[in-house]
Structure formats: structure tokens, C-alpha cells
Amino acid sequence: MSNFLENRHPEWADKHNRWTYTWENYSGEYAKHDRVKLYTANKKKNVESFDEYLHQKVQAETVEAYMERIMTSDPILLFPTAVDSLNGIAYSVEDDTQRDFGDLGDIDDEESTAYKLWHDADRKGTNWLPVMKQMGIKQTVFHRVWGLVDGIKESQFMDEDGEVVSEVTGEASIHIIDPMAVVDWYPNHNPTQVIVKEKADMRNSVFDTEGDRERDTYIVYELDGWTRYIDNEGEPQVIDEGSYSFYRDKERTQRCLPIFSVEIPMPRDVGYLLAIKQNHIFNAKSIRDFSVRNMSFAFLQLRADEAQYQEIMSEIKKGFRVLRIDPDASGDHDYKSPPSDYLTEAGEILENDKSDFAESAFKMYGDSAKQVTATEIIQKSRSGIEAFLSLLVTSLDEFENKCLFLLEQIYFPDEPSRWGKANVTRSQDFTPKDIDEAMEKVSNTIRNSKQVNAMSTFRAVELLNPSWTEEEVQAEVDRINRESGAIELPSNQVGS
Questions:
Q1: Are strands 259-263 and 299-303 parallel, antiparallel or unpaired?
Q2: Could you tell me the pTM of the whole model?
Q3: Domain range summary for the chain, segments of one domain joined by +
Q4: Is the pLDDT of residue 63 over 70?
Q5: 468 Cβ partners below 8 Å, 6+ apart?
């Protein structure tokens, strides 16, 4: 058998490094990466191979100075702040979400399956909503994330009569899989084969000194079941397997996998672009801060002959910088500092870059969203950010609904009539809901406009009753006109 475990999908090969780079900029791992890896590289006198996030100046920066800058650089977390803020807005309307677990039960019923899933969605103790929030964050960062629904866990044992009995030891679960872990799939759309690479603890217990603590394993998902492999000296070796049956529809006409991908249809990889922007600011700030640090240490100029100079130098602690000048020159010893005027301008540029990041981040997500929604979906949002959030919550609904449909198949495998009852629909109205403030603004607008006769009765009734249909508004306007005996002017003539 050829070693298919080494195969990589072209999309994975093209984007793997970008996904890793983007996630490390979001998680802050990039800062640890530089500190640890570059410290190790310095010990080996091999810095260039680890120059990934904080870049060494090509000219006039020694390895020692570079290492000092690494250890004194302050991490920048503008990108994660933008991502978290967007998801904060998306989840601020969670109370308006319409969610029904169908025959899985009620989340408030402690005996129901829904209750168990709601309080432990991933078999790690994470509640359902936090898992969905993690999904939103990763979608915003990667734009493409994979989901997996794992079946009920059972253990088998032999009873007193010698019969093999199965016992449920764990509920079904849902899992978010980073795109870096899904190394290959076929075909490109609606795949029927997917390979996931993960680390597994191969030990039997803490006393096992022979098994690998972390071993690369590969799970191949196919329509009939899954198989776990290890790479045994270039040959795939099966170490575990299982079977399942999942379908795309209630009629069971087409099989599917328990693993699926969900993506935000945006034309640009905005997460990656913002990670690059953050890294630029990180480097600019590092240079600015290190320059300030250098300017804080003045140079001591000594007026002395060679013997005097050596005598003074022997008494100066290590780390002081000293410049020797001609002893015959006039003047006394003094300190010399390089001009630092350029630092003021550099600092202003840096601060402008930082303050513009949030606006740029929101605009990039918004613009990318508008480009796709203008041609592919009906745009109901009032701004670019709402356009992106609309795409985000739609992908979250898709992810959660696919999970629910697969979960129904796990718990009711022979009852397709019970499939498809569980569903979720999130609100796409991200307008802040301060009712008192909103009504006060409407009242002031109407009051002020009426005073100058600048608003039609139709518009006034429409503002006071935002949920009414046009027919209902018109009926109320007709009633007001009849009672007042007024003749309503056309709206395009009012105030003209």
C-alpha cells in the first residue's frame, strides 16, 4: 500500500502556513515563538532560520542587539481585539436566537439528551454556547472551519450469563477542527473521504514508559466508517476503526460523513491580511521602543591619553558605552547622546497606525462582505460591518444545524421521521436596542419636524410604529385625517 498519509490537498498546501501565521497572531503565540525559538537559535548561532515574526534588521543590528530587542519587545494584540469585538456584536443578540432541539428534548430537563449536550457539548465540559462562540471566532480568523459530530461512546463487557453487553459511557459530542488539521479530502465539494491529522497519547497509563506521549495519527473518514492509522516507517498501519451511517436527507437517499466544512463566502482572506498588518505594527513598535531604550543610555566621552583611558575603563562597570577623544583637545569630560528628533515622528506614525487598525479591520471585513453579498445574497444590512456579521451568523447557523441533524441521526438512527426537527436561526439585527433612547429620538424628531411642518403624518405614524406594515400605517393616517378634517399633502411636497 502506498503511503497515502503523506498526501496533502492542494488547498491545504497553499494555505497551511497562512492559517498557522494568522492563528498565532490571534492567539499571541507569535510572541512566545520568537522568544523561545530565537533564544534557542542564538545558542546555536543560527538566527536567520527563526526570523519569522520579529525581523532582524539586515544592516547594523548584531545578534546580541537583536536578542535584546526580542526580550524587550511588547506584544501587540490589535488583531484579536478586532476579532473578539466583531463576535461580541454578533453574540449580543443571542437572546433573539430561535433554537429548538426537537425530539432531543428540552435544555431545562435534566433527564433529556438536549440538557446533556447543552451542558457538555464536546465531552470536555464545555457548554453548547461557548463552543458556538469558539466557532464564530475561528470562522472570523480562518474563514473556513471543519466540524465533527462524534457518536455515543459505549463500552462492552460480558455479563454473568456470558452475554456481551454494551453500556453507554459518554454522550455524542461536537468538535471544531482547525483547517490546519484536515490535510486531505476527496472530492473537493461534498467530500466522501477526509483525512484528519492529530496528536494522540499512545500510552496505556502514567506508568507506561514505552508508549509515545504524543504520536501523529491519521483518521480517515469514509461513508461507512472511520479508520485510525499511524505511519509505521513509511507504511500506513491500522490501530483502530469504527462504523457509522449518516445521511444528507430524511429519505436516506444519499450518504454523508460526520465531518463537514463551513466557510464564510468572502473574496479576500481578511484574517490573514490583518495578521500581516498587526505584525507590521509589532515590528514598528519594537524598533521605536528599542530606539528609545538606546537613546536613554548616553555615551561617556573621556578626555585622556591611552594610559588614563585604560585606567578609567577598568573602573567602569560592564555595559557602559565609552568614546575616547583626543586628550590634547580642550574641554572637559561630558556625555554625548545621538539626536532623537526622528523618534518623535516615528512615534506619531506608530500611534496613527495603531489607532487606524480597528477602523481598517472593520472596514476590510465590511468591504469584503459587501462584495460577495451584492451579487450572491439579498443585502438587508445597513452597513459593511452588518454585512459581514450577517455572513458570520449565517455560517454559524449552518454549522449548528448540520450538527443538530447529525445528532438526531445518532440518537434516532432508525427513526428518520424525527430528523430535521432540531434547528436554529440567529437574529441578523445588530442595531443596539436601547428602547427608551430610541423612542426619545423618535419623539424629538416628530416634535421638531411638526413644528416646522417638515414631516408628513404618514412619516410620523411610520416612525412611531416601526413594526407596522405600509397598509397599517396608511389606514392610521386616513383615520387621523378624517378626525382632523385635514387634507394630507403628498410626502414629496411637504416642506418644499
A1: unpaired
A2: 0.71
A3: 4-28+75-271+370-425, 299-336, 435-484
A4: yes
A5: 461, 462, 476
